[in-house]
Predict the structure of Short-chain dehydrogenase/reductase.
Amino acid sequence: MSRKRLEGKIALVTGAASGIGEEAVRLFAENGAFVVVADIQDELGHQVVASIGTDRVSYHHCDVRDEKQVELTVTYTLEKYGSLDILFSNAGIIGPMTGILELDVNGFDNTMATNVRGAAVAIKHSARAMVAKKIRGSIICTASVAASLGGTGPNAYTTSKHALAGLVHSACSELGAHGIRVNCISPFGVATPLSCRAFNLQPSEVEANSYAIANLKGIVLKARHIAEAALFLASDESVYISGHNLVVDGGFTVVDRSFSSK
C-alpha cells in the first residue's frame, strides 16, 4: 500500500469549493489528512464534502475579507479535529479586468481585501493556533506568475499577487522561530471556474490559450498539478523549505520568447 504523505495531519483550505482548492482538498484527503473546506460557495462546498464521502472532510462558510469569519473557521477546525498543521490559503479573485488608466478603485480595494488581507488574517489566526500548540506547521498561499511578472494579468490582480509574495516573505521571517514554514505557489494559466468566468471562456478555450503561449509543450496545466505542488509543500518532504515561491509554469517566467518568435 502506498504511503500517505499527510497521515493524521489537520488541514484548512480556503477557496476550497472549486478549482485548485477543491483539487487540494481531494488530494490532501487521499493522503490521510483531515480537511476543513472553507469557502463562500456553500452549496459547492457541501457537494465537495459529500462527493468525498468521509468524516475526515467537513465544510465551514468563510469569507476571508471578514477577519471574524476567518477566526471562527480556525476555531471550528480546532474544535472539530483538535489541531491545525496545514493552512492552504487559496481563496482569491481576479478582480476588475482593467489597467491603471481605467482603474476601478472599488474593484481594486476588493481584490486587495480578498487576495492580500484575506491571506494575512488567515495566516495570523492559523499561525496563532500553531504557536499555541507548538506545532511545526506549514502555511501555503496561492500566488501567480503575476506575482513576479507584469503583463500577465489585470492591474489589481497583479498588484495583489506581488503583495502576497511579500506577505509570504515577511511571515516566513517571523514564524521561522516557531518552526512554521511559509511558502507560496505561483501557477501559470489554469482553467478553473474562476478564470473561466473572468475571461468568459470555456475550460478548453482557457487551456488552449495558455498552451499557445506556454514554454513547456506536451502537457496541459491542470488544477491537479497545482494541488500536487501544495501537497509537496504541506508534507514533510519539504521540511526545510520556507520563504519559497514554487513557480509551476513550465519555465514561462524565465524565458524571453520574443527572440525565438522573430
